[in-house]
Amino acid sequence: MDKTPSVEKTRQAFMTCLRLLAASPKSAQELKKKLAEKGYAEEVIEQALSRLQEQGILDDTVFAKDLMARVTLGKAAGRHKIAFELKRHGITKKIREELLGTISREDETGRALEQARLKWAVWSGLEPRKRTKRLYDFLVRKGYDFQIVQDILQKLSSEPADDEI
After folding, report:
1. Which ranges of the chain does DSSP label H, i.e. alpha helix?
2. Which of 7, 39, 42, 66 is 20 to 30 Å from the Cα of 147, by its Cα?
3. Rounded to whole angstroms, how far apart are CA atoms 12 and 23?
4. Which domains does the chain have, with CATH numbers?
5. Rounded to whole angstroms, how far apart are CA atoms 148 and 78?
6. Are 9 and 44 in contact (CB under 8 A)?
7. Among 66, 81, 85, residue whose Cα is nearest residue 144
8. Residue-wise pLDDT tens for the chain (165 aa)?
9. What is the pTM assigned to this prediction?
């Protein structure tokens, strides 16, 4: 029996990938996992993914940039959350480090401060320690660095309250 993957199986795997990609963007790792779950042989999966990459349909760098933009802008997430999402989607360490290197501390701090000011105002009726704790927890869950969170808490707690202006 011939050990090379059949052209038909590779075509089926390729078409399955196209359907999966039409539903939502995916990384090569995610497609590989989905195809394996559907019972495709490793060789068939590799050939289908190679064909997608050759045709420019599958590109993990483009996928990762898009994912990073969605997480950064849509969820106003910090560096740690972005790194987690990229890793969760199977993006290689090299691509993750390259993309995370493009995030400036100033941009990240600006996003965090914008989110913090909104929550700070919403929680204005709370006792100061509880308000600070809630904001701290909120920003850490969003994936912001400890030092950025500390700087923002210091800044907001030293600003005059809205009713004092």
Report:
1. 7-23, 28-37, 42-54, 60-69, 79-88, 93-100, 105-122, 128-141, 146-158
2. 66
3. 17
4. 7-58 (1.10.10), 61-100 (no CATH), 105-164 (1.10.10)
5. 10
6. yes
7. 81
8. 445 558 899 999 999 999 999 999 999 999 999 999 999 999 999 999 999 999 999 999 999 999 999 998 888 899 999 999 999 999 999 999 999 999 999 999 999 999 999 999 999 899 999 999 999 999 999 999 999 999 999 999 887 665 443
9. 0.83
Paired tokens of 59: 């590109």
Q: Can you read off the two tokens belonging to residue 165?
A: 């202006």
Q: Would you state the structure tokens that stand for residue 137, as one six-digit string?
A: 């927890």
Query: Which residue carries 């912001």 as its tokens?
Result: 144
What CA–CA distance (Å, rounded) separates 65 from 13? 26
The end-to-end CA distance of the chain, in Å, is: 83
